[in-house]
Amino acid sequence: MEKVITVNNVSMGYRIDRSKVSSLKEWAVSKLKRQLKNEMFWALKDVSFDVDRGDVVGIIGRNGAGKSTILKLISGLFKPTEGTIDTKGRIVPMLELGSGFDPELTGRENIFLNGAILGYSEDFLKERYDEILEFSELQEFIDRPIKTYSSGMMMRLAFSVATIVKPEILIVDEILAVGDDAFQRKSHTKMMELMNGGATVLYVSHDLKQIRNLCNKAVWLERGKVMKTGNTQEVCDAYKDSLG
Amino acid sequence: MKNVFSNTRVLKKCLIASAICALLILLFYWASGSRLFYEEWSSDEPDAQEQIAVIHDDSEVTFDMDKVCDELHSVSVYIGTVDDKSTGTMIVDVATPGSEPIAQISKPVSELEEYTFATFELDKPYNSKDLDKLKITITTDGVTEKQNISLWSNNSFSAGKYTLSDMNDHSYLLDGKKQSGKVCAYISGRNYYLLGKIFWPCAAVLFLIFTIYVFSMAGRFIDGKESLGGKAYVNYKRYNFLMRQLVGRDFKKKYKRSVLGFGWTILNPLLTMLVQYVVFSTLFKTSIDNFVTYLLTGIVLMGFCTESIGLGLSSIIDNAHLINKVYMPKEIYPLSRVISSTINLLLAMVPLLAVALCSGAPISKAMLLIPIDLMLLLLFCYGMVLILSTSMAFFSDTMFLWNVLSTLWMYLTPIFYPVSIIPEQFLTIYKMNPMYQFITFMRTILIEGQAPSPGNYLGCIISAAVVIIIGRYVFKKNEDKFILYL
Predict the structure, then answer these.
(1) Is the pLDDT score of A169 beyond 70?
(2) pLDDT band at A37; cut points 50, 70, 90
(3) What does pLDDT average to over chain B?
(4) What is the pLDDT of residue B35?
(5) Which residue out of A117, A144, A176 would a mutagenesis test of the B interface target, given it has the greatest number of B Cβ atoms within 10 Å?
(6) What pLDDT, on a 0 to 100 scale, did the predictor assign at position A175?
(7) A77-136 residues touching B, CB cutoff 8 A
(8) Which long-range contacts (CB under 8 A, 24 or more apart) does B9-18 make?
(9) What is the pLDDT of residues B217-232, one digit of tens each?
(10) CA atoms of B335 and B341, how far apart (whole Å)
(11) For residue A21, what pLDDT is reported?
(12) Does residue A54 form part of some domain?
């Protein structure tokens, strides 16, 4: 099996006291007082695992265990403090939908803007524009500024843009089921389609039942450390036991 | 590099690239004209204030010119009255301070005009490079006192230009007797630039470096290896669509609710100019040629500088939500802001050129050099944006500091006042202001119809290079840390 993601002894540290300093004056004062000690908070400590092509990997753990941090590291948003991460293929992170939307622009303009931000080419977007529009069911509103949209409509548009590609590596933070009942079913089906469509998936969720159903592998994180990896059922059982 | 020659398609592109380079160098040479080699120079023209002598065959006036150019072409002397033009000639002797004769020029009295400078051209230009002073003697042949041909002097302390010690230095000999004052005369000639001598070798080296680089880059590209240019090309291909979307967003948002839309980009500098013209014209108009163009050039270029930096400065924090969610090279954010401002600048060039031409500025081949100024200015501003947006990501104080400093900067740049109001001793420091260099570049072209001087090029190139190198270094070094602070 080909390894598409290799995480090698990765640690991610934040300097906590530094983050309090946000103005030049505070920085100078604390520099003079020698308060800027390198106190590190380790969000991840020595994490290693790898993912084969076609794997659907569930990442579980309590709040603050470092699940989102590992996703951001794999997406390339963070550089690890120590260790390395190797990825092969195009990654589509679905960390937060519609983050590139601009409320002043129309729906149509936002499809192109957001598509460009997600890394789609112009030709691809033009070709698939109708498909996006159809899936979002927003035909009559598409030329209005999206600040006039309801939050549900905005999510529908964002979901439609984000899921139009067939990604090689898909990173999902909680299943994205958005909009009203009917659209939720539709988007859920679409997600399942993507996840079962041969893509490699990294999936963070608190819903153990869904993880057991969808994933063939799981990683359990606890306070920045890997507690257990491997077979989904075993990892989930161990995690459930720890919760008591 | 060998593989380039076997691949005809790539070889053709490389050859085209070096041909374009050669063509640009030739175009540059043609558009710059004589300004690459020398400047036309004249010493200050003193105002005539007082009649000092009536010259005739028995009189002699001798004085020194204490500023000399590399090649002397002519001497001009102010003539006051000429009552009778019928006979005689006026003779100007030019000599070294040690009284070795350089030239003797004579002019029939019939050619003299009243109350203006009479110019005495040397038969052939004299190489006066090693001289620091010239001795000039005025005599006549066949002129009587009755003809009343008068010379004038300037002995005022006005305009703060001359100090007391200057006044003591400015003296002349009338029939061998020392008198104080400055005879109204000036000399003209040429000053040669170092660049003129080394232009062709420099151009050849530049061309060779460029050609070799293009070929080696193409070679690496075919082999699939990375190179600076190849990487830039790949990044351009990959992010050009995103870039257009981001720039388009800036524009759509800026003009969405305005009736005139793009019209404002053109109207804004014109209206600012109008206001400043009304306010400052009585103060400075007389001392500046083509005051309208002078003003508008400053307003447009300084406007671009403050707008692009002011907008670009917050580009990292404004896009925090994107930086936190999607990976892409972070330089895209500041770059897209600077590109938006550049489009505004190009639009604002339209009224600038229109006003320049309407106000009688000369149409010259030097105008072909305007893109060089704009490109260097663009690089300079982009470098500033990189530095300041990095600083802004860590300290929000940057914005407040910038607001104050940009105002100060604007007043330190000659936008609505002439450079001549700056005291001589501060001029060197004053001219180190990069905006001074960029604006002077444009004004030389638009108002004088001439190519900028080599010193001016150097000022612009150094400003742009230093700032962009520091900017890239600072930005690259810190870009991975942004996300931890946003």
Answers:
(1) yes
(2) low
(3) 86
(4) 82
(5) A117
(6) 59
(7) 77-79, 91, 93, 95-96, 99-100, 102, 104-105, 109, 112-113, 116-119, 121-122
(8) B10/B218, B10/B221, B10/B222, B13/B218, B14/B211, B14/B214, B14/B215, B14/B218, B17/B210, B17/B214, B18/B207, B18/B210, B18/B211, B18/B214
(9) 888 878 777 777 778 8
(10) 10
(11) 61
(12) yes
The whole-angstrom separation of Cα A176 and Cα A174 is 6
Structural domain range at position A232: 3-90+203-243
CA angle B236-A116-A102, nearest 5°?
130
In angstroms, rounded to a whole number, what is the distance separating the alpha carbons of residues B255 and B267?
13
Q: With 50 as the cut, is the pLDDT of residue B483 above it?
A: yes
Flag if A99 and B324 touch (Cβ within 8 Å).
Answer: yes
Q: How far apart are CA B310 and CA B426, in angstroms?
A: 28
A161 domain residue, yes or no: no
Other CB atoms within 10 Å distance of the CB of residue B91? 17
Say if the Cβ atoms of A77 and B326 lie within 8 Å.
Answer: yes
- Residue A195 inside a domain? The answer is no
∠ Cα B65 B70 B74 (to 5°): 55
Q: What does the pLDDT look like over B299-312, one tens digit per residue?
A: 999 999 999 999 99
Chain segment B8-34, per-residue pLDDT in tens? 888 888 899 999 999 999 999 888 888
pLDDT beyond 90 at A173: no
Q: From the options 2.60.120, 2.60.40, 1.20.1250, 3.30.310, give the CATH code of B41-192.
A: 2.60.120
- Asked if residue A150 belongs to a domain, the reply is no
3 state SS of B27: helix
Domain boundaries, chain B: 41-192, 226-485
**Closest chain A C-alpha to B407 CA, distance in angstroms:** 21
Out of B252, B394, B480, the one facing A79 most closely (by C-beta) is B480
Q: Are B126 and B72 in contact (CB under 8 A)?
A: yes
Phi-psi region of B266 (alpha: psi -120 to 50; beta: other; left: phi over 0): alpha
Nearest chain B residue (CA) to A73: B327
- Inter-chain residue contact B245 with A121, CB threshold 8 Å: no
CA A21, CA B50: separation in Å to the nearest integer? 70
Residue B462 pLDDT: 95
Interface confidence: ipTM more than 0.85: no
A99, A129, A173, best to mutate vs chain B, most B CBs in 10 Å: A99
Q: What is the pLDDT of residues B129-166, one digit of tens each?
A: 888 888 889 888 888 888 888 888 876 544 445 555 55
For residue A119, the chain B residues in CB contact (below 8 A) are: 242, 326, 328
CA distance A111 to A160: 9
Helix (H, G, I), strand (E, B) or coil at B162: coil
B417-430 pLDDT tens trace: 888 888 888 888 99
Give the nearest partner residue to A14 out of B253, B326, B484, using CB atoms: B484
In B, minimum Cα distance to A117 occurs at B242
Give me the number of domains chain A comprises. Answer: 1
The confidence score (pLDDT) of residue B392 equals: 92
What is the domain-level CATH number for residue A54? Answer: 3.40.50.300
What is the Cα–Cα distance from B269 to B275, expressed in whole angstroms?
10
Cβ of B245 within 8 Å of Cβ of A112? The answer is yes
